[in-house]
Design a protein that fits this description.
With 222 residues, this protein is α+β, with helices and mostly antiparallel strands. It is built from seven helices and five strands.
Length: 222
């Protein structure tokens, strides 16, 4: 069945708790307020985007991000900042807001070396590298292979700006089927929940302090 477009973050929400996903993404009767960390992260992403794309000087209070960004600027290739990527169910590129959009994501920085048939995708992080999750890079690489058919290799990386640490990954175009096999079972479960209308709660460590679905018996914000 056709489901609303999903992303790495929305699929992660679903696997964490289907009921939470339902209230945030389907019923839309619950909204999660942005915390200070999220707001700060958004500002830093904007500063990085303007610096890489336009050369806008970085405010000294965010100067800690400049050395890493300068290193990225030295990498040859066409650079795309905050690039929106989207695929339909046939795994064909489509518009980000197309009614048939199936998967969507946003690349903080994509560098495409058309001559070498290679690309680099980087996601900026302000959290701790011990919580690194490379899943979003794999999905981004899969979309890049479809949007740039000449690209045969994607070098991904999570750039933890406050730690000055880079967590790398590598994806090959001829392994796309194997990569998709990681995701399709979970997407099928998401499709099944949409079809059946069954969104069971999945109690976990986030219920007490980090969930805003107050209608759920497990929510600690009652």
């Amino acid at each position: 069945m056709t489901i609303p477009a999903w992303s790495f973050s929305s699929l992660k929400t679903f696997t964490t708790c289907p009921k939470k996903y339902y209230h945030l993404k389907v019923a839309k009767d619950t909204r999660e307020p942005e915390g200070e960390a999220a707001i700060y992260g958004k500002v830093v992403h904007e500063v990085a985007e303007r610096y890489v794309r336009d050369g806008t000087p970085i405010d000294p209070k965010y100067g800690f991000i400049q050395p890493a960004l300068d290193s990225l600027l030295q990498i040859p290739g066409e650079k795309f900042c905050e690039l929106k990527v989207a695929l339909n169910e046939k795994l064909e590129p489509c518009d980000f807001f197309d009614k048939n959009c199936w998967f969507r994501g946003v690349a903080d920085l994509l560098i495409v070396n058309h001559e070498k048939g290679e690309a680099r995708v980087v996601d900026y992080k302000l959290g701790k590298s011990k919580y690194a999750d490379l899943g979003q890079l794999e999905l981004m690489a899969l979309a890049i292979f479809k949007m740039f058919p000449n690209v045969k290799k994607v070098k991904g990386g999570l750039l933890f700006l406050t730690e000055d640490k880079f967590v790398p990954s590598l994806y090959e175009a001829d392994q796309q089927h194997r990569y998709w096999s990681h995701w399709m079972p979970t997407v099928a479960m998401l499709e099944g929940a949409h079809s059946s209308g069954i969104w069971n709660a999945k109690p976990n460590g986030l219920c007490k302090n980090y969930c805003w679905v107050t209608s759920c018996a497990h929510c600690g914000r009652k």
